[in-house]
Design a protein that fits this description.
The protein is α+β, with helices and mostly antiparallel strands and about 325 residues long. It has helices at about 5, 25-55, 60-70, 80-90, 110-125, 140-150, 190-210, 225-235, 240-250, 255-265, 270-280; strands at about 10-15, 20-25, 75, 95-100, 125-135, 155-160, 165-170, 175-180, 180-190, 210.
Length: about 325
């Protein structure tokens, strides 16, 4: 007798020992075969429903607990909201304020507002470190602002190339831009691991940056101008446009073109392509100390204009209207 017939309850063996089997109506066989399975399914469904109900009972408790927690990442939209969030964070700052501000010189009005925030911060013993681009070194209003805050203990350094905007208050909260195309939105970061990562990135830039001394000689008498020129020439050799180079180093396009033109005159090149080839094969970009002396007035930003602003708008040192992690500046 086939085993499948027995498994499906389609036959039943005789109670006698003669080995005979009798057929069972399929409807009766189906009932006998399926009943244990259906009972097991019912039991599992009941257990699943009980588990779902037990877990669901904690939904409200979990939601309430999460509601009391501060979110690790919070998108802030609108200049007023960004300004309010920055002001609150800076007012609560008690140990250190870190800011990285790409772009060039700031307007007198915005610098005045920034000074009103920086001085009280420094007066209560908060360490303030700000990273700018080299282009601010020839902007007199910005230098005047730097002179006042450094006199009160702030530290300011500059780099040639563009870097991301960043504000970190007491390792508790950091503000970063959402993106280049979003000028009225910022992200507040409260996750300790992310803040630690952002701080490490800042420290790497800070270690390479040059301290600012407003009373020192003009940038052309320091390595700063060589640093700017090296970045310009390397970017040019790599094929970057004047506009992109200007944005990268926080200078106006006109100043970038003037740098390239003067170097072209020194090398007596007849075209930009020829100049690029000559620079690439001269070893100049590897050691700017071998370059011919700079002509007078070739310092960064000597065209007298404020340096090229970043696409995020004014930085957080500047005041309302800033993009990215902008809004009203904390310092």
């Amino acid at each position: 007798m086939p085993d499948c017939l027995k498994r499906l309850h389609l036959v039943i063996e005789s109670q006698n020992s003669n080995g005979l089997a009798f057929p069972v109506p399929p409807s009766v066989a189906a009932e006998a075969a399926l009943r244990p399975l259906e009972e097991a399914m019912t039991r599992l469904q009941r257990e699943a429903a009980e588990i779902r109900a037990a877990v669901g009972a904690y939904d409200a408790v979990y939601a309430e607990a999460r509601g009391r927690e501060e979110q690790s990442l919070t998108v802030i939209r609108g200049m007023r909201a960004i300004s309010a969030a920055l002001e609150a964070a800076v007012n609560a700052c008690r140990e250190e304020l870190i800011t990285a501000q790409p772009g060039g010189g700031r307007s007198v009005e915005l610098l005045h507002e920034a000074l009103g925030r920086s001085l009280p911060l420094l007066a209560r013993g908060v360490r303030q470190r700000t990273l700018y681009q080299h282009s601010v070194r020839t902007h007199k209003p910005t230098l005047a602002y730097i002179e006042q805050i450094t006199a009160e203990g702030a530290e300011v350094r500059t780099l040639a190339e563009f870097f991301d905007r960043l504000i970190i208050c007491d390792q508790d909260v950091a503000f970063i831009p959402i993106g280049e195309e979003t000028a009225d939105a910022a992200m507040a970061v409260r996750h300790p691991a992310l803040i630690r990562y952002l701080t490490v990135m800042f420290e790497r830039h800070w270690a390479r940056a040059t301290p600012v001394d407003p009373s020192a000689a003009a940038p052309r008498d320091t390595p700063v101008t060589d640093d700017i020129q090296r970045v310009i020439l390397r970017a040019m050799v790599s094929g970057e446009t004047d506009e992109r180079i200007a944005r990268r180093i926080g200078l106006s396009r006109r100043t970038v073109v003037a740098h390239i033109r003067k170097v072209s005159e020194r090398f007596d090149s007849s075209s930009r392509a020829q100049l690029g080839f000559m620079l690439a094969t001269s070893g100049l970009l590897g050691d700017m100390g071998t370059a011919p002396p700079q002509a007078d007035g070739e310092a960064a930003g000597t065209d007298g204009r404020a340096a090229h602003e970043s696409p995020q708008g004014n930085d957080v040192d500047a005041g309302p209207g800033s993009g990215g992690a902008g809004g009203r500046p904390p310092a």
